[in-house]
Amino acid sequence: MSFSNEVKNELARLENGKQCCEKAELFGLLRMSGAIILRGRNMGIHFSTENAALARRVLQLFKNNYDVKTEVVITRSRRLKKNNRYQVKVVPSPEAGKALEELQLLPAENEGGKTSLLTTPCCRKSFLRGAFLAGGSISRPASDYHLEMVTENQDFAKMIMKTMQGFSLPVKITDRKNDYIVYLKEGNGITSFLSVIGAHNALLEFENVRIVKEMRNNVNRVVNCETANLNKVVQAAVQQLESIRYIEKHLGLGKLPLTLRETAELRLNHPDASLNELADLSEGKIGMSDLWKKYKKYMAAAGISIIVLLALTAFYVRYDYQQYCKEAVPILEYHGIGSADGWMKELFVSKETFETHLQYLHDNGYKMVSVKKMAEMFANGESTEKTIVMTFDDGYLDNYTNVLPLLKKYNATATFFVVHSKIGHYRYMTHDQIQSLIDNGMEIGSHTINHQILTDIDPQYLSWELATSRYFLKKDYNGYVVRSLSYPNGMYNSKILAAVKEYGYYWAVTGNAGTVSKKTMEQKPLELGRIYIDNSNINTFKERLRYSYWVGYLKERGINIHFFKSL
Fold first, then answer.
1. Structural domains of the chain sorted by starting position, each given as residue range(s) with its CATH number in brackets
2. What is the pLDDT of residues 109-145, one digit of tens each?
């Protein structure tokens, strides 16, 4: 099955919304791919598709909103694939004519491509969903990013484009033969569009593939950069040796000042050592900055080019990166641990794979702690070298049955972000199980009341999702004070940040890649990056852990690396 059909099947199975939204969706469906039937003075409607779920949705939308007689005809396509074709017909009648008039599908009702059905944001979202269902397609994210909707009507194409622009989507329009194409070519725009029309499962799959692809590209760039730096380091060492030998031959090292002679001899005795290693070999007599200054004198004396200076810079960057890694703390983002059992498999890590992660971290000397404990370590000036934070989103039942015993086995603590409205529901933890987590030293954080994407909801509901969530958790668990938050889908903006701070949260985790340093905790405690963990093997786990340090380091040094969701 193509990715387009997967998206459409998901959309076609969404729960119906308000009546106005259903009519807006029906307008988009019929305007894109419907036809008017004439029988005498009466009019009917014809809609044809190869997607059975879409045919059922169109039929249901008619039955929910209009008292019309419908027929469904199934035919065999004459094309090579021989797929079934589903024809939904509204029998011509006065009632059908009224439906066409109300939906503003008659030419007289649609002059200029305008309609009164799209007055609210929710109706405009439903309209775009209908247009995509009827005439849209999207490429699989493993290939190039491309989403398009095809129509024969130029005014309707402009209506779609204008509606999408209202959601700040980077949409463009072009013509192809006798059709007009409304399209998106940028990954961020496509994910935003999928979120707007309600295809959240498809969005997660799209982002998962996209993240892995971008991660590989960025890792390759970092590795290439590191390799190039190492090559420059080698070249610098060779040129330093040539400079020293040139001075030794024409002047003699014995005539140099004592400190210069010592640095020259140090390089001659250790030709392969880095500046950091040379500083250590000097037993504190010479620092890296002094080495830098002295080798600059040698290079000036020997006429060495600027490339050597750049190579020495590479030595310093490597040293600076090593120092950063000693204090930086990665935050791991898990969801369910166990079998997906028909749920979104990309959110679940098998129990066996999860234990290999814990085993690796334990064997390599990592301290596994909660968000709160990490914050306390930074505040108290404790060493955070080889510290890692464990987090689990959504509050699945397996967090209690599978995760808690393994955390106790490896002497680890973690933060569990729970969706309050899901507590006690099927496959989610109960109040007693969450209390048991608290009793075992785990931290409980908020994942809001309903897991609504905070950037999409009306600002007046932020207090309900944020402040009320903290209040209910405090009430349910004997005065337990919640200070940590996980943004649903990792999405936030400046207004959300202000609200989170106002409602009493100290720390918040995002969907951005990177690690946490003392500087991050002081300046951006509500924008902590995480590493997204899936069911990949241990080698991928190590690669993502290593890459997170690079991203965190470069970001803290003012080098912004774009990355849409957590690894």
1. 3-198 (3.10.28.10), 233-323 (no CATH), 328-556 (3.20.20.370)
2. 554 456 778 888 899 999 999 999 988 999 887 778 8
